[in-house]
Amino acid sequence: MPVIEAIHVLAGATVFGTILIVDLRLLGFPDTRRPVTRVCSEMLRITWIAFAVSLTAGALMFSANAHTYVGNTAFRLKMLALLGAGVNMALFHAFTFRNVKAWDQNAPAPLAARIAGATSILIWVCVIFLARWIGFTKGFDFKIPVNTHINFQF
Amino acid sequence: MLGLSGVFGLNGALGSGAMYGAGAMHAWGSVSGFAGWLEATPASTSIKSVSWVIPFVQSIHILMIGVVFISCLMIALRVLGVMRTDEPVEGVWRRFAPWMWSGLVVMAATGMTLVVGEPEREFGTVSFWLKMALVAIGVTGTALYGRSLKSAAAGAPAVFPVSAKAASVLIVILWLAVIFLGRAIAYDKQVWGALSPHA
Amino acid sequence: MSRVSPRAAAALAAAVAAALIALPARAHHSFGSYNMAVTRVVTGVVTRVNPDANHLQIFFAPMQENRKNVLRDDQGNPVIWAVEMGGSAQMAREGVSVDSFPPGTIFSIGLHPLRTSNAVGTRGPSGAIYKCPWRKPPEPGKNCDSVPGSIEIGTGGLLKPTG
User: Fold this and answer.
1) What is the domain count for chain A?
2) Number of domains in chain B
3) Do C73 and C79 form a contact (C-beta atoms < 8 A)?
4) Residue B46 lies inside a defined structural domain of this protein
5) Do B62 and A132 touch (CB under 8 A)?
6) Do C70 and A150 touch (CB under 8 A)?
7) Which domain holds residue B165?
8) Which sequence spans correspond to the domains of chain C?
């Protein structure tokens, strides 16, 4: 378990760190010299590998405690946030990214791209906070399973 | 397995103070006493009694892992000639070193908050002390690494010498070990077996 | 690099090693949400064991002082409490698992309650758990450690309850 959790943390942090570089580039930080397309292609390779590793480790952690996770609010919100990150990315690639040639280099990205970048940073910060919250709020299910008889009269 | 009986023997000797004399035993007394004292300070009590403080601080610590580790990875991959080859190394260093150092400062601050919150949980593990030792080596190593990169880049080599590449790989592995040890603090007995004071 | 004297290095290593050995054992994550200053000794009947990887949880109905039946609320339903301990793999090695603590098992434990609720506690870093022989509750006011044939899990006996 500690190894799987450490891999999950490391891979998750790698996803965050690499996406942060892409998002900051969309926001024009530190500058616009390097082409957006180049930054995207070199960083997102790492992002996707890390994401796959994180997902695998996460699935193992989930399967060890499936029951406790599904009822956990932080876990559900985290899944929602991941979905949000996916939608944000899909919209960016489907629309904003299509005319990237016009703002690839030495030009500020359009507002839609900057909003996508800022949204992405915000969502991934939330994902990591929610992920950490799961471990602290897994909670207790006090229900007595059916067919459990404890009505003793000693 | 051979090592374990040796460790047990060592434990016994240290426990009775027979092997290392009064100086060492006095030193452990201070570490243990310090943990106890810290545990009872108002700062420690408020950190642990507000339920969101510890997960909040840990989350920031994890975010900073992303910042520091990726910054270090970018520099290392540039030296290895894998990535960002369109930029000179000192450009890559200038781009990422400030993030790396600021990230490390934030990690030190959040890490210290966690230690003040639960000193006995941290001080009582093999992983914590090993991690601190590796962090010290890592920070010193990164500083030296940065200096040697600058002087190497002054000579503007097209390809870095093997030693620089080896140092890049080593430093990445070192931070990986630090990250794994960080998670292992919660599992000291499982990870270290008989070496752990929890055993 | 300046030279470090072997004696100083040995003393430092010894101090760290000794500190490691001397410090009390701690469990998985923080006990921060638990009030470690309060200890309560309870004897209860297991309703469910949740083999969570990080913290095994035992759900149980605390017994009445007379040990004839479990505590009940105003509607007559059993009151259910929970106690957390080490990870499931670790606890299985010590003898606490879904199989060894089936519903109906009577056991005693010293626990530290949550700061926010009395119904949840942690075993904390020390103290033993006692499992009564099947369907053999302790005498009134007593705990499983007093029942002949009970099984002791962990060391240090039952914790002393605080007032």
Assistant:
1) 1
2) 2
3) yes
4) no
5) yes
6) yes
7) 51-195
8) 40-153
Residue ranges of chain C whose CB lies within 8 Å of a chain B CB: 10-12, 14-26, 28-33, 54, 87, 89-90, 115-116
Distance from CA of A11 to the nearest CA of B (A): 9
Joined tokens for residue B187? 């599992």
Chain A interface test: which of C48, C66, C93 (most A C-beta within 10 Å) = C48
Q: What is the pTM of this model?
A: 0.76
Level-2 CATH architecture, domain C40-153: Beta Barrel (2.40)
Nearest to B58 among A1, A34, A132 (CB): A132
* Residue B141: closest CA among B183, B192, B104, B88: B104
- β-strand partners of C106: C45
User: With an 8 Å Cβ cutoff, are B62 and A12 in contact?
Assistant: yes
| pLDDT tens, chain A, 154 aa long | 789 999 999 999 999 999 999 999 999 999 999 999 999 999 999 999 999 999 999 999 998 778 778 888 899 999 999 999 999 999 999 999 999 999 999 999 999 999 999 999 999 999 999 999 998 877 787 888 888 877 777 7
**B-chain residues within 8 Å CB-CB of A135?**
55
- Euclidean distance between CA atoms B41 and B68, whole angstroms: 31
Between CA B151 and CA B155 the distance in angstroms is: 7
d(CA B89, CA B13): 52
CB B164 within 8 A of CB B89: no
Separation CA B76–CA B176 (nearest Å): 13
Residue type, A85: A
Q: Look at C17 and B14 and tell me if their CB atoms are within 8 Å.
A: yes
Please check whether residue A71 touches B, CB under 8 A: no
Amino acid in position A70: V
